[in-house]
Design goal:
The structure is a single chain. This protein has two domains: 11-327, 3-Layer(aba) Sandwich (Rossmann fold); 331-424, ANL, C-terminal domain (GMP Synthetase, Chain A, domain 3, 2-Layer Sandwich), CATH 3.30.300. 30% of the residues lie in helices and 23% in strands. It has helices at residues 16-37, 39-44, 66-71, 73-76, 104-120, 140-152, 164-174, 183-196, 222-230, 342-349, 386-394, 405-412, and strands at 84-89, 99-103, 128-131, 155-158, 178-181, 205-209, 235-241, 246-250, 257-258, 264-269, 282-288, 299-305, 307-308, 320-321, 326-327, 332-334, 337-339, 354-363, 368-376, 400-402, 422-424. α7 (164-174) crosses α8 (183-196) and α10 crosses α11. It is globular, with a radius of gyration of 22 Å. The chain binds zinc ion. Zinc ion is lined by residues 251, 253, 258, 312, 314, 316.
Length: 430
């Protein structure tokens, strides 16, 4: 059984026709491998004829949901326990943690993937890369970025989740060229460096994970604006998930993340599972190629975004994926309007004086009921016109409760390693 990964030269710069040719070969290898080795796909793809399919015909195959992966987890593993090199658990923000098993080949594939992402973001072998994300806690992102930096020939500095003082000390002495981290933390770090006068002129690239810095129109979110003020023209957004074992990083054009052409085929699906044209939002659905531990076919990530198909000035010929504009499970239907919590969150992010917030959603199947809980550095909901600003953005009047910073903190950071600002109390929510 082939569980080794052999990196090719980046095929993203070839012509579209050549990319499609190579992707079609890899897709058919992937489907054959999945049917032969994964009990789940042996079952769900049993009716598929023994002939190669085209990339367009991929849309006829069944999709795989997060619930499928959680429910039939063992059936997805395509290798024996001896061939598993790393086990991680996806974060518990949408239900209980889900086990994902990687082979040595999958880890090498991740390293190749993140090396390509780092190159797209302007990082070179001469750079030192400061990692401010965790490499442990059964979390795959930190391992992927570490492996990518090493594979590129750069030097990784694994400072992980640590204090501002600790990172600042390393920036002063090691002078890294790049930092990988969560954008809200990188904004805090940048402000700290400014306030303390520490020289950070060596840093030319920030790789931003986990939080969107651009909006539906590809403009900057309030968080993106904050970063842009502190670190002008330094940041690159990246999208990834543990299940798809793939990351999509922006290039110098900053117009969407490039899926590595030999590692993933991306579709955007409407609510009926039908692919939508470029530009239209829908669910990001990924068929990761060349994965051997837990191969997936048409995995529905639950994240909402859109494809950007215009040619990219960097010369890569792949379609890009836009910013994540919401999670399918967090879609709100209020009085006939459909919107995502980010409409509320980005507004609150832009109000100076708001220190933190979370949302509770209740209601029945007919209409959702939203309540906002907000804490303040200074001012209050009335003086800062919170209700008016939220109404201007969403056209909805929602109850706003003022709470202490301690209460906000304990709810938001209480049970998860990631901040949770969305609490779903709806009946029948999936
Ligand atoms: Zn590009």
């Amino acid at each position: 059984m082939k569980t080794r990964f052999e990196a090719e030269d980046d095929i993203s710069f070839l012509s579209r026709a050549d990319i499609v040719l190579r992707q079609t070969e890899l897709l058919n290898e992937h489907i054959r491998y999945s049917r032969e080795n994964s009990a789940y796909y042996k079952k769900t793809l049993a009716d598929l004829a023994d002939e190669d399919i085209t990339i367009e015909e991929l849309a006829k195959l069944p999709t795989t949901s997060k619930q499928d992966l959680a429910l039939y987890n063992v059936e997805f593993t395509a290798v024996s326990e001896h061939d598993i090199a790393d086990i991680c658990f996806t974060s518990g923000t949408t239900g209980k943690p889900c086990r994902i098993a990687y082979t040595k080949g999958d880890i090498d594939r991740l390293a190749y993937n993140d090396m390509l992402g780092f190159v797209a973001a302007g990082i070179s072998p001469a750079d030192k890369v400061l990692l401010t994300c965790t490499i442990d806690c059964c979390f795959v992102a930190g391992l992927a970025y570490y492996s990518g930096a090493v594979k590129l020939g750069a030097a990784a500095i694994r400072n992980g989740i640590n204090t501002l003082e600790s990172h600042a000390g390393i920036i002063r002495t090691e002078r890294p060229g790049a930092i990988v981290g969560v954008p809200s933390f990188l904004a805090k770090l940048g402000k700290y460096l400014q306030d303390t006068g520490i020289d950070c002129s060596s840093i030319h690239t920030l790789v931003c994970i986990g939080e969107p810095v651009r909006n539906r129109q590809m403009g900057l979110t309030p968080l993106g604006q904050k970063l842009q003020e502190i670190w002008p023209n330094c940041f690159y957004s990246t999208y990834a998930s543990s299940e798809i074992v793939t990351s999509f990083t922006e290039c110098s054009a900053r117009s969407g993340g490039h899926p590595p052409a030999d590692l993933a085929i991306v579709e955007i699906l409407d609510e009926y599972g039908v692919p939508v044209p470029a530009g239209e939002p829908g669910e990001v659905t990924v068929t990761p190629l060349q994965v051997t531990g837990m191969p997936l076919v048409r995995f529905r990530t639950g994240d909402i975004s859109f494809l950007i198909d215009e040619p990219c000035s960097c010369g890569r010929k792949t379609s890009r994926i836009g910013p994540i504009i919401g999670r399918k499970s967090q879609m709100l239907k209020i009085k006939g309007t459909t919107l995502f919590p980010s409409a509320f969150f980005t507004t609150l992010d832009s109000i100076d004086g708001v220190s933190d917030y979370y949302m509770e959603v209740g209601g029945d199947a007919l209409s959702d009921e939203v309540e906002m809980f907000v804490s303040f550095h200074h001012g209050d909901a009335k003086s800062l016109k919170v209700a008016e600003l939220l109404y201007a953005k969403t056209r909805l009047h929602v109850p706003i409760h003022t709470i202490s910073e301690e209460r906000a903190k304990s709810r938001i950071y209480g049970k998860s390693r990631k901040p949770v600002r969305f609490f779903d109390l709806r009946k029948n929510n999936l």
